[in-house]
Target: Phospholipid kinase
Amino acid sequence: MPHLKETVYFIVNPMAGSGESLKVWKKAEKILQSKAVPHEVFFTREKGHALRLTMEILSGTKQDTRMIAVGGDGTINEMINGAIGFPHAIIGSLAAGSGNDYVRGIQKTESVEEALSLFQDNAFSAIDIGQFETNGKMGYFVNSLGMGIDAEISDEAERSPLKKWFNFVRAGKLIYLFIFIKKIVTYKPGCMELIIDGDRHLLKKVWFIVIANQSYFGGGMKISPMSKLDDGRLNVIAVHDIPLLKLLTVFITVLWGGHLNIKNVDSFSGKMIKMKNEGSVKSSLMGKLLVGTK
Ligand SMILES: Nc1ncnc2c1ncn2[C@@H]1O[C@H](COP(=O)(O)OP(=O)(O)OP(=O)(O)O)[C@@H](O)[C@H]1O
Model:
């Protein structure tokens, strides 16, 4: 375990939460200075930079190294992908994005003070990490990955110029709801083949399937309340064959996890999951990563 005298590395995404991250960093910096915590800070310049910085820092040492993202789920996701293959990486995040599902579900605190104290108190746990393969691309995740309307919503939210506006009025999460309402009219649910640890499930009219390693997705929706961070399994939630009105109730009840009582919402769990429609995603449990948790 690292000693308090060892440098803590911060990677700040100045664009996360439409600039909110810089305010979060200023607050964190004051706390670090007041407690004389040795630290170094790097500011990301573009997409992919947090991943490269993480690899560079970790390849320069073999000692346990604490690295903290100051950003949202995109930033911590890049850092996790950069930390793969470095067993001395200890990763954490300060909530500074618009969704912040990582800090909500994994670190279990969105407070800057509490998050920093986790790292000072060496409050770390090893959590499961998922690996995925799609269209020849390989990557890693600790939150979730999805196929269907959910993936299209996340993708559009990420690219939407409206995200900045929603963040500006401090309603960052509403971007997902806004795009969902737009998509629900145009989305055509299709058949999906799901193979979980060798068992095949053929699902008709699939609206979305989420493979979750932790409870939250989409900026605070409790998609997978039964997910456990260290149980060595991934959870699968599939919403299919559902009338439109009932689908709307899924998107309301998912806020507290009540959607699992709806007949057309199925849940599974396993270690190796394959999803196939026009594209395909293969996902499996990969190993463990040490992160700060309450
Ligand atoms: N300097 C930069 N300029 C533009 N984009 C950047 C820069 N640095 C990082 N990025 C990209 O910004 C994107 C958004 O960051 P991030 O996901 O952390 O914030 P967010 O979208 O506000 O939060 P959340 O994902 O929790 O909703 C990431 O995909 C990241 O790669």
Q: What stands out?
A: The pocket of adenosine-5'-triphosphate is lined by residues 13-17, 44-47, 49, 71-75, 78, 97-100 (CB under 6 Å). The first strand starts at residue 8 and ends at 12. The chain has two domains: 8-122, 133-287.
